[in-house]
Design brief:
mainly alpha, globular
């Protein structure tokens, strides 16, 4: 009992240890981003914001930022539209529970395994091109084409993570009162009007959560892209996460690598900030 007043400080020690374990690497990396630091040329040398200037003025850096934003935007839009549409279809269908079990199968595969599977199917002589030839169409380059590689990786992402959106959307649809939809239909609203005026507003809290999860995950996507294309061909799929890996691990340029990753962290932070703000605004309504 004499040492009872020390107990609160002892209980908070594990949390402080975890906080230090998180903050120390982050702050170290943030400091390196303001340095010229190549592992094969000695220690870090402070150079201000030169790494960030190089990132935002070089073709490689601007292309990586563009790929990052394009990938995240396209993936989130396609997965949200497709996921909500399929969720509504499964809810209204007679065999929704059976199809629900089948549609979540992609989530059971680790993303790397799923990406490797698709990489094999999208090769020049893979099963996808074989199907196209059977239908009288020409083969496509898919992951090997500068113009098609990014869209091919997006296709893989959509296949893997749309079931996640479907599950959350279905949970949100369960919370929409049937009476509201029936009253809207009795007032003469068609299916589209019913969805826009009743279902979608009720789904907004869930939709914000979906966009937050999939948006942040897509911004920092690495495993699917690196497994299938390693950022190629010709940097067509090199986003900020892959660029940071290539600069840091392959080129040993820790300064530029951390600058790319700090910019990626800022993008993720801004997205989470505005989405949480929108979520709080929805909760107040």
């Amino acid at each position: 009992m004499r040492h009872k007043h020390y107990l609160p400080y002892l209980l908070v020690l594990p949390a402080l240890a975890i906080l230090v374990a998180i903050l120390y690497p982050f702050l170290t990396g943030a400091w390196w981003s303001f340095n010229s630091y190549r592992l094969n040329r000695g220690g870090p040398e402070f150079n201000g914001i030169e790494n960030y200037i190089d990132l935002f003025t070089s073709g490689e850096g601007l292309r990586a930022i563009g790929v990052t934003l394009t990938y995240a935007l396209v993936v989130v839009v396609i997965e949200c539209v497709l996921g909500i549409a399929l969720a509504m279809l499964l809810n209204s269908g007679r065999y929704g529970s059976v199809f629900r079990l089948l549609i979540v199968l992609p989530l059971l595969l680790p993303p790397v395994i799923a990406a490797l599977m698709w990489k094999v199917m999208l090769t020049e002589n893979g099963v996808v091109n074989w199907i196209l030839e059977s239908l009288g169409q020409q083969k496509l380059l898919w992951l090997n084409g500068p113009d098609s590689a990014l869209w091919s990786v997006i296709l893989i992402d959509v296949w893997i993570f749309t079931p996640f959106v479907i599950l959350l959307a279905q949970a949100g649809l369960k919370s929409v009162p049937v009476e509201l939809r029936e009253a809207s239909a009795m007032d003469g609203a068609g299916p589209i009007r019913n969805f826009v005026s009743v279902t979608l507003p009720m789904l907004m809290p869930v939709l914000i959560v979906i966009i937050a999860f999939r948006g942040i995950d897509s911004l920092k996507m690495f495993d699917i892209i690196y497994t299938t294309t390693a950022g190629g061909p010709v940097d067509a799929t090199t986003n900020l996460h892959v660029l940071g890996y290539l600069d840091g691990i392959r080129n040993l340029n820790f300064g530029m690598a951390m600058a790319a990753l700090i910019v990626l962290w800022v993008l993720c932070y801004l997205m989470s900030y505005f989405l949480l703000k929108a979520r709080r605004a929805e909760a107040v309504k």
